[in-house]
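Q: I'm writing up a methods section and want to include an example of the input and output format. Could you take the sequence below and give the corresponding predicted structure tokens, formatted cleanly so I can copy it straight into the document?
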Amino acid sequence: LPSAVLRTGKISIIGNGVALDSHALVSEIESLKVKGVDINYNNLMVSESCPLILSVHKDKEKLFEDLNGNHKIGTTNKGIGPCYEDKVGRRAIRLCDLENVDELNKRVDTLLNYHNAIRKGLNYQVVKKEEILKEIQEISEKILPYKKPVWKILNDLMKEGKKIIFEGAQGAFLDIDHGTYPFVTSSNTVASQAITGSGLSSNAHIIGVVKAYTTRVGNGPFPTEQKNEIGDSLFSIGKELGTVSNRRRRCGWFDAALVRQAVQLSGVSSIVLTKLDVLDSFDTIKICIGYKYSGKMYDYLPASHSIQEELEPVYEEFPGWKENTQGKRLIKALPTNLIKYIDRLEKLIGVPIHLISTSPNREDVIKLKNI
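A: Here is the clean output for your methods example:
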């Protein structure tokens, strides 16, 4: 669910770019309703074009992760990748298909022709059509009332001058095209995906949200990773566990080259810098300004996975501020060394840092510049 469902008077919209686990969605809705959160067909809308994650997708993801052995991607086993595969392969079942029984039957036939061919080839039990239909029918009545042409609603809201905030779940370098392939997700996660993933046409101010250090969940290249006491401290102080998988996040120093690349790929206008207070106890703080490989200097992350794995980070070092900043809300209350750290990050990234946070609480933010 979008986080805005917790805000009274706000409309929450799930766009067409989302692979929708309808069972998980309904479960979240029902659990929040029990806690008194008002979720209805007027404040939550789901794109009619959303492809549905089904049990066959979760089966396939787990099966292929197991087949990969020591070369696993490190997926969440939620069926997201296989669902997107079916979307691109034009065999996905979309939310709008649930309205028409005849169309749904055709779509299920097409889907199972593909999945059962793979399962047979791997000596895996085939799935019966009745099983998938039952799985879908169990949820149809609960999910269909939320179905809307969200692209039209968003464009109408934009014409009315309403403010629209897009919320994504993953960082720029998990992007299927621009990320650390193959250790990526199965969709585009750069900011421009908000447009194609919703149907809205807009020239918006794009805010990039960046931690004061770098983290990653799962396998894949991570030039500034600290497999030592520094990484352990960032993990424990920052409480770095994956939101979906609950896996331990890998932690390392701020990678300015990586963030600068993400800013350019996403057309970011300004930055919100979070979790600065996590760095309070460090004597020395490092910023990666680029990489070395085979005698050559790179100020960006090369696309080749084999090169990414061998990159040597080039650091600038800064003295830590060694002062408790948690909960600070005024610029004048910040240590001089922290201000210097922010200034240097801003110069390296190439766009303004207009807001910083100093604790998990929403109120503990400091506005540095106007948008």
